[in-house]
Specification:
This protein has 2 domains: 115 residues, 3-Layer(aba) Sandwich (Rossmann fold), CATH 3.40.50; 96 residues, Orthogonal Bundle (Arc Repressor Mutant, subunit A), CATH 1.10.10.10. The protein is an alpha/beta fold and 237 residues long. It has a 5-stranded parallel beta sheet with strand order 2-1-3-4-5, with helices on both faces. A 4-stranded antiparallel beta sheet has the order 6-7-8-9, with helices on one face. It is 39% helix and 19% strand.
Length: 237
Amino acid sequence: MKPLVLIIDDDAKLNTLLGTYLADFGMRTIAAVTPADGLRELHAHRPDLIILDVMLPGMSGFDLCRTIRRTDTIPIIMLTARGEVADRVVGLELGADDYLPKPFEPRELVARIQSVLRRPRVAGGQVRRFGDLLVDGARRQATQAGAPVELTTNEFEVLRLLTERPGEVFDRDRILETLRGIEHEAFNRTVDVTVSRLRQKLGDDPKAPRYIRTVWGAGYVFIAPETPGEAGGEAVG
């Protein structure tokens, strides 16, 4: 089945051009010019990926990304004429999988779509428990003392990466590879801020960490031991 891409951009001409171009690379597209129409198309068609413009009428792409991420982990690539590093960081921290400033080369967009679609969306179907913290790779959820921990896509990906190999130090380059799409000029700040926000949501004090320790000059390591009897997790259907 050809991947289905939902384009949400108020430029109808651009939507048509992108639809024609992506079709040459084996992709199907549907388009919406308003956030409300985009949400309707999302729920009606369940696309494989969303291309989301930041500058939309009535609701910004940032707000729409946040709304989608409350209930859905569908891959999102954001487009915008605002190419500042700070804007890219905001988009990625809200849960976007990639960020491409306008104007862009259509072939680069295709490459980024293909890269994001190749990215695994589950973590081996495993559940890992670390005391009262449970990380469910199949459902892409984390709970703490039975309560859901509301994480962005990037925050969950960092948590998943670190908890897959407790005790192993991950440098920023390896974390960057997991958080595909972050441009090199922004990645240092993005990785550090993502880890900082993940710590806050886990109630983890970086000065006396229970979960994530900073190894100065090297990276980050997950230090909580896996709960006995839960090693390797369990399959989730």
